[in-house]
Amino acid sequence: MDSRLLEILVCPLCKGPLQYDKAAQELVCRPDRLAFPIREGIPVMLEQQARTLPAEP
User: Which of these, 23, 28, 24, lies nearest to 6 by C-alpha position?
Assistant: First the structure.
């Protein structure tokens, strides 16, 4: 994942910062509890394609 791209991408819902999870190949939005997949090096920034993260205890 290109570090320059990571600097400008934001969550499409809340416009907040995303965290890159290299192992899972996802961009994670903690406030919205969503993980957006990265497929073949391309972030898929669609809410319908995002995985919902479990609530943190």
Answer: 28
Using DSSP's 3-state secondary structure scheme, residue 53 falls into coil
Strands 51-52 and 42-43 come out as: unpaired
Residue found under tokens 């406030």:
31
Q: Per-residue pLDDT tens for 12-56?
A: 999 999 999 999 999 999 999 999 999 999 999 999 999 999 987
pTM of the model: 0.90
Own/partner pairs, 4-8, CB within 8 angstroms, 24+ separation: 5/43
Which residue, chain included where needed, has tokens 């073949």? 40
Angle at the Cα of 43 (from 42 to 46), degrees rounded to 5? 130
